[in-house]
Design brief:
Cobalt-precorrin-4 Transmethylase, domain 1, 4 domains, disordered N terminus, globular, disordered C terminus, single chain
């Protein structure tokens, strides 16, 4: 107040300063408890889990299990890093002396109050299972990639929410991350001896982290470390990854696809990639639309290639994000050739194809032992926008095949007529599905003879996939779907 008093005296009241940090329900701390005493009183499932967690962190855990010591048998059968000593009796106040932490699973409130008082008298912090108002400390939901450890707290309000957050984080963090973190611990003293400049050490760790994320499928080895020490800061090398975004539902992305998006500095994405998928990319990444929309507006493939190469040569980590699988009618070969010709490192992350997404959304298999002996993928238009002239119509007419037609909207009637002329039965089942796997998904069912006219009522400009064959016969569907028409003729 004394600082502001002269201003108030002069009639000038300072503007309120915004808080530097929002209020915290709890203070997250990471404790070194190896070799310290911890007490667990009770034999509930929660007590067993807390004892195991404490021992995993190296604590010497004394368990007073009453008349149910067998509940802790898994901990004694597979000893954790710390120790677990189980006593078949109730706890006493003397048992709490010297304890850093006391965990209780009391039968009632009065027992809980007695345990808290005794623990506080012994100088121990207290955790009472399922009674957050009595807790000095709480156990968060943990993601364990030790020495990388992430704790999640909801202040005891919604533990299931914490668990769901953990599941999402765990899906992003490879198990091998722990190996890279352990390697970093051993490297620190070596780095201080060999690299004296603070800036050079920082650049070393930047290279280390980049190498770790680029090799998440394996643990580090001696060659990695020698390469890191041998490297000298120079122009950043860019690279390109072709990533399949799947048919639309962001939850159908592979873990590898999400990791690529979070490493990218620039993302070149198609029209079929929705905003929900792009939300999974890291916030700082530049997003450049390079849509190819069939007969509508499109970026030229040559321009996409040139942009991709230029960005990579400038040192960017480029993700070329494509709907479905980039290897299925995704012009991947042209982009791969452009990168390789420019000497750029390029890799591929496959995705769930439109055909797979459509079949899963509709609830049937693309192959059936008695109905479909093979699956064939056909494009509905060539580079000139017309139906390709070199389609093998005898293969299309095979009654034992499932045919999936990509990008067929403008040529579907011609395709159907030529398939029938080649011998495909006019009553062969067919389904046209728009926006497969998305909330706005819609489909029409009919036959090869009727599907072109039926598909006209699907939402305009929506991506459509057509499945032809016995597997597309009418049947009960999986999940709530918008069926625009049930006509089959």
């Amino acid at each position: 107040m004394s600082v502001h008093a002269p201003l108030r005296a002069a009639g000038r009241v300072p503007e309120p300063v915004p808080a530097r940090i929002a209020p915290l329900a709890n203070l997250p701390l990471f404790h070194k408890i190896a070799g310290r005493r911890a007490v667990v009183a009770g034999s509930s499932e929660g007590a067993v889990w807390k004892a195991e967690l404490l021992a995993a962190a190296g604590a010497d855990v004394l368990v007073f299990a009453g008349n149910a010591p067998e509940a802790f048998a898994p901990l004694t059968a597979y000893p954790p890093p710390g120790s677990v000593s189980v006593f078949a009796r109730e706890w006493t106040a003397a048992d709490l002396q010297g304890a850093l932490l006391a965990v209780g699973a009391p039968a009632n409130r009065s027992e809980a109050d007695r345990f808290v008082a005794a623990a506080h008298a012994a100088g121990a912090l207290v955790n009472i299972i399922d009674q957050t108002d009595l807790c000095d400390v709480q156990f968060g939901t943990i993601v364990n990639r030790s020495p990388v450890v992430i704790a999640i707290s909801t202040d005891g309000a919604v533990p299931m929410l914490g668990q769901s957050i953990r599941a999402r984080i765990e899906s992003m963090l490879p198990l091998t991350l722990s190996s890279w973190a352990r390697a970093a611990k051993t490297l620190r003293p070596m780095l201080k001896q060999r690299v004296h400049s603070f800036r050079a050490r920082r650049l070393f760790w930047e290279r280390f982290v980049e190498r770790a994320w680029s090799n998440v499928g394996r643990a580090p080895n001696g060659a990695d470390l020698e390469t890191l020490f041998a490297d000298r800061p120079g122009p950043r090398k860019g690279r390109v990854t072709l990533v399949g975004a799947g048919p639309g539902d962001p939850e159908l992305l592979t873990l590898k696809a999400v990791r690529a998006l979070q490493q990218a500095t620039v993302i070149l994405y198609d029209d079929l990639v929705g905003p929900e998928v792009l939300e999974l990319a890291r916030r700082e990444a530049r997003r450049i639309a390079v849509g190819k929309a069939g007969r509508g507006r499109s970026c030229k493939q040559s321009d996409i290639n040139a942009e991709m190469v230029a960005l990579a040569l400038a040192g960017e980590t480029v993700v070329r994000l494509k709907g479905g699988d980039p290897l299925v009618f995704g012009r991947a070969t042209e982009e791969l050739d452009a990168c390789r010709a420019a000497g750029i490192e390029v890799s591929i992350v496959p995705g769930i194809s439109a055909a797979q997404g459509a079949a899963a959304a509709l609830g049937f298999s693309l192959s059936e032992r008695r109905e479909a002996r093979r699956i064939q993928f056909v494009t509905g238009h060539g580079a000139d926008g017309k139906l390709p002239s070199d389609i093998d119509w005898r293969a299309i007419a095979d009654a034992a095949a499932t045919t999936i037609i990509y990008m067929p909207r403008a040529t579907l009637a011609e395709f159907a007529a030529l398939a029938i002329a080649a011998g495909l039965a006019v009553d062969t089942p067919a389904i046209a599905i728009a926006c497969a796997t998305l909330p706005q998904q819609a489909q029409v069912t009919g036959t090869i003879a009727s599907i072109a006219s039926l598909a006209e009522i699907l939402p305009p400009h929506a991506p459509v996939t057509v499945i032809v064959g016995r597997v597309a016969r009418p049947r009960d569907r999986v999940g709530p779907l918008l069926e625009l028409t049930g006509i089959a003729q």
